[in-house]
Structures are given as structure tokens and as C-alpha cells.
Amino acid sequence: MSAVRSVEEHLRAVRSLLAPVLARLAEGEPDRLGIDHDGLAGRVSAGEVRAAFPLPPFDNSQMDGYAVRAADLSGASGERPVELPVGYATAAGDAPLVHRGGTASPVMTGAAMPRGADAVVPVEATRGGRFPSLVRGVDAAGGTAAPRERPAGTVVFDAPVVCGAFVRARGEDLEADAVVVRRGARLSPARIGALAAAGVVEVLVRRRPRVLVCATGDELAARGGRLLPGRIHDANTPMLAALLRSAGAIVRTTRCADRPEALRALIERTGDADLVVTSGGISAGAFEVVREALAPLGAEFASVAMQPGGPQGLGLIERSGGAGPLPVLCFPGNPVSTALSAELFLLPALREAAGLPGERPRERRALAHDVSSPPRKLQLRRGRVAPDGAVSVTAPGSHLLGDLADADVIVEIPVGVSRASAGTIVDTWRIA
Question: Which end of the chain has the lower number of beta carbons within 10 A, N or C?
């Protein structure tokens, strides 16, 4: 291990390692996904996307009501109501009709405005508040109504209407060729809906980072197999995979025997990953397989001033077959250390590449009790939030995965603090 480095120094080293990979993903050949693709949500647009059509594509009614010319109701009042004959009705999906002046054309919400009408009066604003028996101007096959089908009845208006009332104008939301989604924007459900409404059929999106999560350790039992003495279930691999997928990565997992040559061979022959992440095997023990395998290949191992998660490693490992060097991040093996290392050093860069805020939002909270801390390290403790907002810190062990699962927040005790008294305000952040 080299001299102790700060969290900030190690974070800069990780960012420098990942920058070329993320730049290639941003500038490289994009994926092309249909607007209905079930994997489109959360992807990042590889370019500017413009509306194929205006939105809305035609003038349409905002309400169920009567399309009229505003001038025909200019003098309407309770004392001097205006009575107009009822015209043909337009339903949503019908082609626009021609409105005859001096009539009131029934029109439904979302239906095309009859040409010649310039306002809509909601049906509930008319005397009686209900439609009479209506005759559609377009039949079920899309043709015009037969001449024998004539609308009947009249409707009474007790108030004037302004031109444009309850009319959604063509293009008032988006003009044709307007930018709907900018390059680098995350495709949220609302953005996907706007693209679909504007006639966009498919979207070019940035390729997601492909991460290989490699589990090492002869103590790991096969998933679903019998747990023999001295063996444990592998928690780090599914936990890391879930964390990385939540940040937008495509994750593949694998197991490797506790032999340095096996790990070296695995990484050197990995051709379909942008990054390898390992957990365990990097401390000061006698059988630290990851350190033994990768240090001779140029990987750097350091002690970072944080607890838990002090041992860290990273490097560029050459691959066979001309595939180019492969970035490798090496996290410590205790599960809480693994999770917090990923949160601090890897996930922010992946989230930013996925169009998300990099760091989790910090919340300032008061400690519910005194907390001791190693003054030369950033201490990350699990915490539970009381109804009054104060946070109680739990046990510090890096192996206590159940405690992490039950915690509400991570509490940061900064470098330079050996004891934080009850009531001290500290930074906290929510656990994924």
C-alpha cells in the first residue's frame, strides 16, 4: 500500500481513469431505439431530437361544448340570450367540418375545430347544460353524414365568448421542427410522451457502460448450494450489480478462482466490457489475490482516509487481441465497505453519464447522541432518522450488511473530528 490519500484525491484518480471510457460512450456509435421500446426510459439522448409535426397538429377543442363564431354571441346576456340552431357534431378523430355562421356546432374534447368557428362554449355554460340528440357530421367510415341526417334543436347562450376561448391552437405546445429533447438529456416519461405526440418514431441514445463485476474468494458458496463450514454466500456481487444498474450500467457478473493467474487471464481476455469492478483481495493479508494479480500489471493500490472502505485499487490493464487497456476498480471485500466505495467513487460518474445528478442530495441533520470518530478519516456511519429529524448512529462494523439494509441514511463525520456531541449538525444522504 502507498501513503494514505484523501477521499478527494482518490475520487480524482477514479474520475481520470473513467473519463476516456465515458467520453467514448458519449461520442461513439449510438443505439437506435423505437419510441415504444421498453428500455427507452432513463436513456440519454445522443443528439438533438426535433418534432416531426406541430403539437397539437390541428386546432382542437379543450372542452366538450359548442364551436361558435364569437361574433354571433357578442350581445348575449341573461336578459337577452342568444339562441342558435345546433349544427353537425364533431367527435375526437373526425376530420374537421365546415362551420356555418349563425349556428352552434357540438364539438368534443380533443376534436378538430370546425373551420370557420373561433371559440368554444362549454356545454355546462349553456342554458340547460346538456347536449340534445346529436348528429355527427362524419360517419363511422369517415365519410360525411347522409343528407337525410339533419341536426335538430337549438341551444341558448346567456353570455358572450371571446375569440379563442377553449381552443387549443395548432403548434401552441411545439412548432414543427422545434427541439423536443436536447443532446445529453435523460429520457424521462414526460419527454418520451412529448416525442411520441410530436410524431417521433425512434431516438438515438448513448450506449450504456458495460461493467463486469468479478467475485473472487474461495470462501464463496455457489448460489443456491449447500453452505459448507468456512463458506459464505456472495452478497457483494448482486449488491454491486444492483447499484451499478441503478446508475444506468449494463452489468455482467462472473466468478474467479482465488488464483492470481486466473484473474489476470480473465481480465486480459475480457473484450466486451468497458470497466471491471472487483471486491475483496486488496488489503494487507497473506492471500490478497486481486492485489497479487494486478499490481504487477500496473494497478495501483492505496489506503484512502475513510472508514469503512480504506483499501482501494485502480488501474488500466492491457488486454489481449488489441482490445486496448481496460479500466479496473478494486473495492474492499467487506460488504458495507464495498457498497460505500461504489457510492463514493464510481456511481457519481455513472449517474452523470446517465443524465442524473452525480452525488446523492445531502441533508443536514442533528445527531441524537455523542459519536466518536477517528480524526484522520472521513467516517461513514449508518443512521436512523427519528420523527423529529434527529439521526441516531448505529454500530460501525463494515461487515454489518443487515444494519446497512435497515438504515435510513449514511452519516458523514468529517476528517478532523474525534468526537461529535449530541446536537451537532452533520451531513447525511439517503441510501439507495
Answer: C
Following DSSP, what letter does each residue of 260-316 receive, concatenated? HHHHHHHHHT--S-SEEEEES--SSSS--HHHHHHGGGT-EEEEBSEES--EEEEEE
Question: Residue 1: is its pLDDT beyond 70?
Answer: no
Model confidence pTM above 0.90: no
Q: How far apart are CA 173 and CA 168, in angstroms?
A: 9
Largest CA distance in the chain: 99
CB 66 within 8 A of CB 153: no
pLDDT, tens digit (0-9, with 9 covering 90-100), for 251-304: 999 988 888 999 999 988 888 899 999 998 998 777 789 999 999 999 999 999
CATH code, 7-28+207-353: 3.40.980.10
Residue 331 has pLDDT above 70, yes or no: yes
Beta strand 275-279 with 210-216 is parallel
Residue pair 21/140 in contact (Cβ under 8 Å)? The answer is no
By DSSP bridging, strand 391-393 and strand 378-385 are: antiparallel
Q: Which amino acid is at 155?
A: V
Cα angle 217, 404, 278; round to 5: 30
Contact 172, 211 (CB under 8 A): no
Report the run of H or E that residue 349 belongs to, with start and end.
helix 347-353
Beta carbons within 8 Å of 263's beta carbon, 6+ residues apart:
214, 216, 256, 278, 289, 290, 293, 294
CATH 2.40.340.10 given to domain 362-430: yes
**Looking up cell 429533447, which residue turns up?**
181
Q: Is the pLDDT of residue 145 over 60?
A: no
Class of domain 31-55+183-205: alpha beta
More confident residue, 218 or 413: 413
**Gap between the Cα atoms of 209 and 273, Å rounded:** 8
CA-to-CA distance for 30 and 192, rounded, in angstroms?
17
pLDDT tens per residue across span 360-374:
999 999 999 999 999
35 touches 192 (CB < 8 A): yes
Q: Where are the domains of the chain?
A: 7-28+207-353, 31-55+183-205, 58-169, 362-430
Whether domain 58-169 has CATH 3.40.50.720: the reply is no
> Which pLDDT band holds residue 139 (cuts at 50, 70, 90)?
low
DSSP 255: E
The CA distance from 311 to 62, in Å, is 62
